[in-house]
Amino acid sequence: MTTEARLDGAASTIGRPTPPLNAREKLTGRALYAADFKMPGMLHLKVLRSPHAHARIVSVDTAAARALPGVHAVLCGEDTPDRLTGVHRKQHRILATSKVRFVGEEVVAVAAIDEETARDALDLVRVAYEPLPLVRSMDEALRPGAAEVHENTGNLSIEYNVERGDVDAAFAGAALVHEATYETTPQYPGYLEPMATVAWVDGDGRLVVRTSTQSVFLQRNRYADALGLPVSAVRVIQATVGGAFGGKVVEECNSLICAWMAHRLGRPVSFVNSRLDDFLGARSSPAERITLRMGVDAEGHIIAKEVRILADCGAYEGLATHVLQVSLVRSDNMHRHLRNVRSNGRLAFTNHPPRGAVRGFGGPQAAFALNSHMTEMAQALGIDSVDFMKRNAVRAGDTSVHGFELGSAGLAECFDQVSEAIGWAAKRERPRDRGTKRRGIGFAGAIHVSGNREMGNWDGSIVTARVTADGRVTLSTGESDMGQGAYTMLAQCCASELGIPVSRVTVLPTDTDLSPYGHGSIASRVTILAGNAAIRAGRAIRGRLLALASEVLGVPEGDLTIAGGEIYATSTSPNRRLTFGELSRLHLYRHGGEELRVTATYDPPTFLAMSRPDQYGNVAPGYSFAAQAVEVEVDTETGQVEILATVVSDDCGRALNPLAVHGQTCGAAAMGIGWALYEEMKFEDCRLLNGNLADYTMPTAGSLPHIRSEIVESMEPNGPYGAKGASETAMLPGAAAIANAVHDAVGVRIRELPITPEKILAGLRARASADAAPGASHA
Amino acid sequence: MRDVDYLRPETVAEASALLAELGEGGRLIAGGTALLLALRQRMVAPTHLVSLARVGGLRGITYDPRDGLRIGALTTHSALARSAVVRAHYPVLADMAGRLADPQVRNQGTLGGNLCYADPTTDPPTCLAALDARLVLGSARGDRSLPVTEFLVDYFTTALHPDEILTGIRLPPPRFDLGHHARFHRTAAEHRPLINLTLLARRDGDTVAEARLVVGATTVVPTRVAAAEAFLAGRAVTAAVAREAADIVADAVEPLSDLRGTAAFRRDMLRVMARRSIERLMPPGMEGREVA
Question: Which residues form the signal peptide (chain B) (predicted)?
Answer without folding.
Answer: none
